[in-house]
Amino acid sequence: MLLIDIDACIGCGLCEANCAFDAIHVVDGIAEVNENCTLCGGCVDVCEAGALKIEGREREEKDGLAAWSGIWVYAECRHGRVAPVTFELLGAGRRLADLKKVPLSAVLLTDQAGDIPALLISYGADQVYVVEDQALADFTDEAYGNALEDLARQYRPEVILAGATAIGRSFIPRVATSLKTGLTADCTQLDIQPEDGALLQTRPAFGGNIMATIACPNTRPQMATVRPLVMKALAADPARTGAVINCRIAPERLQSRVKVRNFVALEGDQVNLNEADIVVSGGRGLEGEKGFALIAELAHLLDGAVAASRAAVDSGWIPYPHQVGQTGKTVSPKVYIACGISGAIQHLVGMQSADTIIAINRDPHAPIFDVATYGVVGDVFEILPKLIEKIKQARTSSI
Amino acid sequence: MKIIVCVKQVPDAKDVRLDPKTNTLSREGVQSIINPYDRHALEEAVRLKEKHGGTVIVLTMGPPQAAEILRESVSCGADEAVLVSDRAFAGADTLATTYTLSQAIRKIGGADLILCGKQAIDGDTAQVGPGLAVRMDIPYVTCVRRIAQVNDKSFVVERLMDDGYDEVEVGLPALFTVVKEINEPRLPSLKGKMKAKKLAITTLTAAEIDADVAQLGLKGSPTWVVRVFAPQLKGERSMIAGTVQEQVDQLAEKLLEWC
Ligand SMILES: Cc1cc2nc3c(=O)[nH]c(=O)nc-3n(C[C@H](O)[C@H](O)[C@H](O)COP(=O)(O)OP(=O)(O)OC[C@H]3O[C@@H](n4cnc5c(N)ncnc54)[C@H](O)[C@@H]3O)c2cc1C
Ligand SMILES: Nc1ncnc2c1ncn2[C@@H]1O[C@H](COP(=O)(O)O)[C@@H](O)[C@H]1O
Questions:
Q1: How many CA atoms lie less than 13 Å away from A226 in the CB half-sphere?
Q2: What's the complex ipTM?
Q3: Cis omega (within 30 of 0) for bond into A221
Q4: Which residue range(s) make up the domain with A52?
Q5: Is B110 in the pocket of ligand 1 (CB under 6 A)?
Q6: Nearest residue by C-alpha to atom 12 in ligand 2
Q7: Residues with CB under 6 A from ligand 2
Q8: Does the residue A260 lie in any domain?
Q9: Can you give the CATH number for the domain in which A71 is found?
Q10: What does pTM read for this prediction?
């Protein structure tokens, strides 16, 4: 419950102005709360009179929180390849660690570490905890989750960051639940609160229509998954030095009740949609597989990935893993090129955080133009072939 | 086979907007719907029941009006419905939600299979499925795109990964979260609608699921929202005009600069 101290309330209305849910109003000089209240606490922080409090949310001075120290990054590695988001997290983690003057560590769970620890150090890690075990050859939530949980209990980091990838979003909740701590999903911004050094985790909610900043004041570690392509990696510095700490996890903790039998890779040389800087996306306006062949050609030229609206996926022109939007993937590339996509809200929520959005649509009133950095009113079947031609020409003449 | 499907009532995305002038969520005409992913979880449960026999129970934690989505689920093939509802649940984050759901599932005698949507479209966390499985101490598979084989005591399923998909085997009891690709949900049937109308929904309170109040709602939630605000619109917007060739030339120039 939101408690209002009517003696302290001065009726200034700051709470009303800052409530995102239209849940608090000043009536006759005193704040009053209604049933819209979600207990988000936004008003408590702005109240200069200190008249507002959320019951059950008093900050507890818990012993032992101080025993947790250091920033950890889960170094995602699958089939021998380090996921690029790992380097981005090391960049973000480096900044947090420097602000807090604590070490930055990477945690590598793998069947074959090879040169990866050195690579992680070159991207900013001060130390790398390595668990190398045959049981980690395939990703399983139980083995990976138990290993990270056991390491966290032993070494007590104050922060654990992981990529908001298929793997991160699958097993990190396991770790957080086992450690009975908070986890913030799919963050796009991380800061340190100057007063107490707490991690402030900002993320889109309601499909990006609102942003929420979340903290985890009473439990440790503070855990977050972070959206790929949002944080900046540092340039690799092979001269950097760091410690590699080999760890052993009890064999029974590396057992999994889920067994991986087979892996089927994405067809062809396709770029992973979540990791692509450039995404070329098509909708119903492409009219069929032929239209998607154009998209694929442009994507290939630009080293980008191919995406689609739900309408295109439902029509069977391209498989579901390419779908962007509310019931598909959320992407944050540098450039998103939307071709023949109307821009329904369910599509926009999956791509509106791209740095630059280019929209090609023949309907000047299509809502996609409301979010487009550059809009082109025109026919995709006229524009795309010419654009492909033009880029090819420019490429050959510049060689 | 006893299957429990966890469903959540969420505001329809197209209605939720932060008014940039007043910085408030416009609530006017906001429709509540079944979380879209949960429809696919329900459909998969009903198909499993139709093929292999068993019962499908839909479960939700939410305010009394969440009963609406339970009725809708029954009209689409679920057999029973359970609503866990108590003021003590207010303000729950995913850790408190999984505690509450796990206590409720224990109360109704557990399940062979628990199905969840991949994520709820309001919070977008995708954490409740995995967290619930941990609370129940059962194995789980996220982002299931196909149930390939149903054996006596085990399943072979395909889980969607960023670089393709994995085929995995898991014994029961287990929990899966599902993606949209897994099936095409059916519409309510007339018979289902009749059944839903007459349905008695079991309602459970905090006391009835033997909950430890310290783990519920706000108290049981380690994460706190400190601020809610409108996203900032990025940069400028402009239209590229001219003849087709002029448009293409300008576009190509920009693309070549970036790529
Ligand atoms: C619960 C739910 C979840 C959903 N989830 C998603 C999701 O995850 N992702 C998603 O994308 N959608 C999703 N949708 C669907 C969404 O509401 C839209 O229906 C869908 O995005 C429309 O796709 P589209 O823009 O390709 O097609 P349309 O809306 O049909 O738009 C096609 C556009 O192409 C233009 N066009 C046609 N021909 C040409 C041409 N020759 N040249 C140039 N332009 C042309 C037209 O002007 C039009 O604007 C969801 C809907 C629901 C209800
Ligand atoms: N309050 C709830 N009641 C029942 N099921 C829920 C609830 N919240 C989440 N779920 C289930 O967990 C899935 C993931 O939700 P989330 O972790 O909130 O993104 C949803 O698709 C539902 O199946």
A1: 32
A2: 0.90
A3: yes
A4: 2-63
A5: no
A6: B128
A7: B 6-8, 35, 37-38, 41, 59-62, 94, 97, 101, 116-117, 119-120, 123-129
A8: no
A9: 3.40.50.620
A10: 0.88
